[in-house]
Amino acid sequence: MKPSEFPLEKTDGRLNEFGRRAEQRPAVYRYVESPSPEVAASPGYDSLLDYWQILFRHRKTLLSSALMGLLGAISISLVMTPIYRVRTSLEIQSTNFLEMKGSADSTGGYTTPESYVETQVKLLQSEFLLEHVMEKLKLKERPATGWRSFASRVRHLPEREELLRQIERNLTVRTSGNSRLLEVLYESPDPKLAADFANTLVSEFIELSQEERWKSAQGTAEWLTNHLAIMKGQLEQSEAQLQDYAHTSGLTFASEKENLAEDKLKELQDELSKAQADRIANQAKFEAAKSKPADSLPEILEDPTMRDYRQKLTELQRQYAELSATLTPEHYKVQRVQAQINELKSEIQKERGNVLHRIGNEYAAALRRETLLSRAHAEQEKVVADQSEKAIHYDTLRRDVDSNRRLYEAMLQKVKEASLASAMRDSNVLVVDRARPPLLPYRPSLPMNSAIGLFSGVLLGFGFVLLRERIDRRISAPGDAQVYLDLPELGVIPLDEASISRQIPNRLPQHRPASSLPPESTLRSSLGDCPELATWKRKPSLLAECTRTTLTSILLPSQNGEGPRVIVLTSPSAGDGKTTVACNLSIAMAEIGRKVVLIDGDLRRPRLHKVFGVGNKWGLSDVLWAETSLETAPIAHLVRETEVSGLRLLPGGSCGVTPSNLFYSPRMSELLKRLRAEFDMIMIDAPPMIHLADARVLGRLADGVILVIRAGQTTTESALFARQRFAEDGTRVLGTVLNSWDPRTTRGYGYGSYRDYRAYAGH
């Protein structure tokens, strides 16, 4: 690239974005706020793109975590015992085959059909029914294995109890929505055993239901048969009375004559019969109330108020029992519940008295009504006595006979229905689907476990990556230093791929004696491809172009229109590549026709003379220690020429005086003044500044300092420390240079790889 074609603007595509972040957080990253290392080291993720870049950088970790989770889930699934689940369904029918008046229907008198279905669910899970199934399948004779054997030994339970508990855990009975269908699910390692258990459970449940219903129907039939004999005796007695009256009175048939008196007498007779029946019924209730306990009377049992009182009393007694189990009788809660119970019993007694009083009143009213009707009937009889006295008496007896016959026939019909029901043994449970041995296990589910393992691995890997990013305090990507330090990022120097691929050492041992060093010609040939000379030796390389781009940022004029002429390059720690950056920037400056002098300010470990292949017998330390006048000394005696056109070098020298003492001397200022008059740009390669004061002293004498940061190595704490020290000294920091950045580790920053650059450049 020719000097006229040198780019005059930065190519950092992420600068605007990180500048926007820095503007949003002025209080976090500015030196004046003195940010803590913890705050400065915590990167902020403002968009999904940041998270995507994190995931992309650690994609191998994520893939490894996901693969480990998947393999772990598959391994666990393979070693787990397969469990098979069978299913059978039942339908609970809503009506009985024969429904008799006064007998319970299929819901057993439950308030709602749902409560009846829930009762059937509990019956299917009852221990009585499960023990029947255990005995029928002879499960006790099977040897205990696996969890059942281990649990019985640990809990010291009998084998029968542990087997019953295992069956209860494996059995599930549930309703299917609002329907009358019940689903019976059973799990077992043996698919055939699971199917046999479910089918046997259903069969035993149906058989038990039939047996209970048959016993209920048989009891009803016996009760009806006994009362049928009584009704038959009453009918025969009434018929005998009718025949005796007809025989003694000489009547062969009843009178069919119709007149007003007889019609009225018939009406009175009908009313009297009803009154007598009502009085008999009320008298029966009244006598039962006197002879039987009041709580056993139907009127007491069916009374809504009494039913409510009994429910409340039961609830209070339950509360009293629970409180008495933990509290003393003198406790106020126990006494309060006892008082409520006493009050409720008083109300029950009062309501019971009201019911008994009402029964007595009803009986008295019925008795009075019967008396009045009897008187009216007697008076009417006197009117028609002469005409139909015998006929009336005969008709009365005949009506009694007819009434008894109707009752007897109705009772006989009920007895026949009950006998038929007890003989048929019907059931209201219907099997919809029978259980079949499954071919595939219910669990473990390999696809489901694999998905869970894969998801868990990805989730754990993502958490590990985020945690690693959170605790990683290194500056790794372009733009990070600008965010953390609030300093301009002058450029990014990529990793020298050519030097790494060829495995050519870029440094010589630093502690070899001078006698063992190779000659200068050997140094030049062996260091021809070192990264310090990449801008000179490999001009089309990506490292060289990025160096020229960085130089453009440095040469841009400041607010007063002047650019810096004396620049100190330093780094927070050793090994950050400041020498590489200083050499390449000096070479790039010389390429554009400027006169440049590069000073090796690292007097403890001078290295620039090795890079450029010159001697180190006379250098900066010797110049500062000597007493000759710097103003009259020839420039050729101060600096050395290099093979790079326009670039001079002032090596470190061989004087063993402490560098800080030399830099504090007035001769350092005089030397820079003399060099300003001779050269366009003065580059000083200073030592690391955290542990040494040399860079801080040189920074006060220069126009500005450039802080070199190594990607993936320099921490935010060390960079902030350097930034703070320069701010305390009042030294102008021009910006930062990110060195040895690998574009392959981070995507989306506007920088390409070496291969992309060569493709673009046409090489």
Descriptive notes:
The protein contains 29 helices and twelve strands. The chain has 763 residues and is of the alpha/beta class. The protein has an eight-stranded mixed sheet, sandwiched between helices. A four-stranded antiparallel sheet has the order 2-3-1-4. A hairpin with a 5-residue loop joins β2 (171-175) and β3 (181-188).
List keywords for this structure.
single chain; rod-shaped; eight-stranded mixed beta sheet; 763 residues; four-stranded antiparallel beta sheet; 29 helices; alpha/beta; disordered N terminus
Nearest-integer average pLDDT: 76
| Structural class determined from secondary elements | alpha/beta
Rg on CA atoms, Å: 56 Å
Instruction: Give helix % range.
Output: 55-70%
User: For the terminal residues, how far apart are their CA atoms?
Assistant: 13 Å
Strand percentage lies at 5-15%
Main beta sheet: strand number and arrangement?
8 strands, mixed
User: Which residues sit in consecutive blocks of at least 5 with pLDDT less than 50?
Assistant: 1-44, 95-106, 146-154, 502-527, 748-754
Overall geometry: rod-shaped
Q: Tell how many strands the DSSP assignment holds.
A: 12
Total of helices: 29
> Order of strands side by side in the largest beta sheet?
5-12-11-6-10-7-9-8
Please outline the helices and strands.
Layout: H1 15-24, H2 26-29, H3 37-40, H4 48-57, H5 59-79, E1 84-92, H6 113-124, H7 127-137, H8 146-155, H9 159-170, E2 171-175, E3 181-188, H10 191-249, H11 260-291, H12 298-302, H13 304-326, H14 332-424, E4 429-433, H15 446-471, H16 480-485, E5 489-494, H17 497-502, H18 520-526, H19 534-537, H20 542-555, E6 566-570, H21 578-591, E7 596-600, H22 608-612, H23 620-625, H24 635-638, E8 640-641, E9 647-650, H25 659-664, H26 666-678, E10 681-685, H27 694-701, E11 704-710, H28 716-729, E12 733-741, H29 754-761
Parallel strand pairs: 5-12, 6-10, 6-11, 7-9, 7-10, 11-12
Antiparallel strand pairs: 1-3, 1-4, 2-3, 8-9
Helix pairs in contact: 5-15, 7-10, 8-9, 10-14, 11-14, 13-14, 20-21
